[in-house]
């Protein structure tokens, strides 16, 4: 599986990853007939939701850092 899809990094989607892997293990014909599409769509939705959570967390951290930097520059400008 793709390195970014390791279960240790995406614990919330672990069951869906396992289900997709098991579906793929059934063979080429099973995959080519679209029998794994539902599992793949569910996994994609789960990973998208996890990525959104991470991005939201990172954005709030960036906003806090920018506020600190602005305050530091404001202090420098006032004290010079």
From TrEMBL:
Pfam families: Cmc1. It is found in: Mitochondrion inner membrane. Keywords: Chaperone, Disulfide bond, Membrane, Mitochondrion, Mitochondrion inner membrane. InterPro entries: Cyt_c_biogenesis_Cmc1-like (IPR013892). GO terms for cellular component: mitochondrial inner membrane. Its main location: mitochondrion. Belongs to the CMC family. Required for mitochondrial cytochrome c oxidase (COX) assembly and respiration. This is COX assembly mitochondrial protein. The lineage of its organism: Eukaryota, Fungi, Dikarya, Ascomycota, Pezizomycotina.
């Amino acid at each position: 599986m793709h390195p970014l899809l390791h279960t240790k990094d995406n614990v919330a989607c672990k069951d869906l990853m396992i289900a997709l892997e098991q579906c793929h293990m059934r063979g080429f014909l099973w995959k080519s007939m679209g029998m794994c599409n539902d599992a793949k769509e569910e996994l994609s939705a789960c990973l998208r939701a996890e990525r959104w959570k991470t991005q939201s967390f990172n954005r709030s951290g960036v906003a806090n850092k920018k506020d600190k930097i602005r305050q530091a520059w404001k202090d420098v400008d006032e004290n010079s």
